[in-house]
Each structure stands twice: as C-alpha cells, then as structure tokens.
Write a structure and sequence with these properties.
By secondary structure, the protein is of the alpha/beta class. The chain has eleven helices and 13 strands. α3 crosses α4, α5 packs antiparallel against α6 and α9 packs parallel to α10. About 3% of the residues have low confidence.
Length: 291
C-alpha cells in the first residue's frame, strides 16, 4: 500500500463504510445549535441527522465553523510522525475559507517535517460531490497509485464532477443570501423549486426554476442525461437532507434511464445541511463538464 494518507473534511458527507473501506481520515467540522457545539462526523455520533433536520424544521438555526489551521495540524501530525505523507482533499474555496487556512497550516508543517510531502487540493466541490472525488482518489490509492499520481488525477478531473441539486425550503437559500426575500416568498407560494449546481469556481449557482417537487427531482436526472460520461459504468452518489423517499426516487430514475449499477446514498451532513435545509436532494456524477 502506498505510504501516504488521504485526508478530507466532513463536508464530503461520505458514508462511514466507505471511510473504512478506503482507509480515509475525515476531519470533523463544527456546527452549533442553541449554543451547543457538535462535531460533524461520518458516523453522526454527536447528533442524528433526522434529529438535526427536525431542529431546523422547528425553527432552530445552525451555525457552522471552518476547520482552522491548528485543528488541521493536530489531525495530520500522527500520520507525519509515522512516516506517512498526506494528501488532503479540501472543501470548495468558493464556499468556505477552510482551504486557505489548511494551505497555510500545511506550509508550517512542511517546515516542521521537511522530509514529508503534504499536498493540499481545492476540490471546488461540496457534499457528496466532494465525497465522490475523495472516493475515486481512495480507489486509486488502493490500486497502488502514488500520492502525486492521485493528486494529478484529482486536479485533472475535479471540474468534471457534476453537482445537481434541488432544495425544498427556499428560506434557507434566502438566509444564505442566494435568494431575495421576495423571490423566496413568491417561489414558496407558486411551489417553485430551484435547481442549482456548483460551478467551475466552486460557487453555488441557481440554474433552473421548476414548478413542483417531482419535476425538480426529474430535472436533476435530465441534467445527468445531457453531460454524464458512460453513466452505466459509473459509481453515482446521491445525498439528501432527511428526504429519503425523494432521494430513492432519483436513484430509481438513474438506474432505469442509464443502467447504473452502483449508487451510494447518504444524508447531507449538518455543515452543508445548515445552509441547504431539510428536503434537499443532490445528484453527483462524472461528466464532460460541470454544466
């Protein structure tokens, strides 16, 4: 096995089973509800996802915190001490300042461990989009690829990782400044469900305004039909904000339309879910380009 460790942020929303299988190290991010801090971990040990989304539905507000440099140093030092290099695949710099904090921390660590290699990659991705990049990196590592080969693959392919998602409650986009109060109000009245994606700069961009929940879910799959590369041969990721039945409907369409065999599904974790809200459903796959 190659002598390096792949680390990432808990914004990947990757399943604990894949974390174990691919021998990943996930650095928890912190979110705060009612003055109490929780760690966002793959096993949801601090707070069950359903309970978290019920808090949001009941009007609680969740605040999120980036990973700071000292936390990153503490998390990766054990690997460096054991003679391992580190490849860290980071949450989009277009959505968080975490990448910059970790990049600066890595520079400090390289002075402390001059014989080690630390590579930090801005995935320009989020949720299980980031998770799907990490998944492919983990598979390549298990196949024996070097740290440089895996980092190069991520850089070459990250802008082919398509994110498509729709939200159910427009008020969360309003709180995040993605939607005006008037647009949220009239959109709610008219049952408008926006469809959004992550662009090449890692920013969240609204693309479509779809009337009706079921049609918005189908729109995600329509976008996949336009750009996905060999979808029947891909591993597909689907995430959801406590909306399992809707996510399963998207999975059903993906399997039926494209002959997809392998789908991994998971909750959208509290850090991403704090901003997207309950009812969000997202679809991730490799494409010719993100849009």
């Amino acid at each position: 096995m190659p002598d390096y460790k792949i680390t990432t942020d808990s914004t990947t929303d990757i399943t604990p089973e894949l974390v174990d299988e691919l021998e990943l190290h996930v650095i928890p991010m912190i979110f705060t509800v009612d003055g109490k801090d929780y760690r966002n971990t793959p096993d949801n040990k601090d707070l069950d996802p359903h309970e978290f989304y019920e808090m949001l539905r009941n009007g609680k507000q969740s605040l999120t915190t980036q990973i700071n440099g000292e936390t990153f140093k503490d998390e990766v030092r054990p690997f460096l001490d054991n003679g391992l290099d580190v490849l860290h695949l980071c949450f989009s710099s277009g959505l968080s300042s975490t990448y910059n904090s970790i990049r600066l921390a890595a520079e400090d660590l390289l002075e402390e461990y001059p014989d080690r290699k630390i590579i930090i990659v801005d995935t320009l991705a989020a949720s299980m989009g980031e998770g799907l990049i990490v998944y492919h990196a983990g598979v390549l590592r298990k196949q024996g690829k070097s740290i440089d080969e895996v980092a190069a693959w991520v850089e070459e392919n990250k802008l082919k990782l398509a994110h498509w998602f729709t939200v159910d409650d427009l008020n969360f986009l309003k709180r995040g400044g993605r939607l005006s109060g008037a647009a949220a109000f009239f959109g709610t009245v008219l049952n408008i469900k926006p469809v959004l994606h992550i662009d090449d700069e890692g920013h969240l961009i609204p693309i479509d305004k779809i009337r009706g929940r079921r049609k918005s879910l189908e729109c995600l799959v329509d976008h996949m039909a336009k750009t996905a590369v060999n979808p029947s041969e891909q591993v597909i990721f689907i995430s959801h904000g406590d909306a399992l039945e809707d996510a399963q409907y998207v999975e059903k369409l993906v399997r039926e339309r494209f002959g997809v065999k392998t789908v991994y599904m998971n909750h959208i974790g509290p850090v991403i879910g704090s901003h997207s809200g309950p009812g969000t459903v997202a679809l991730f796959f490799l494409a010719e380009k993100r849009l």
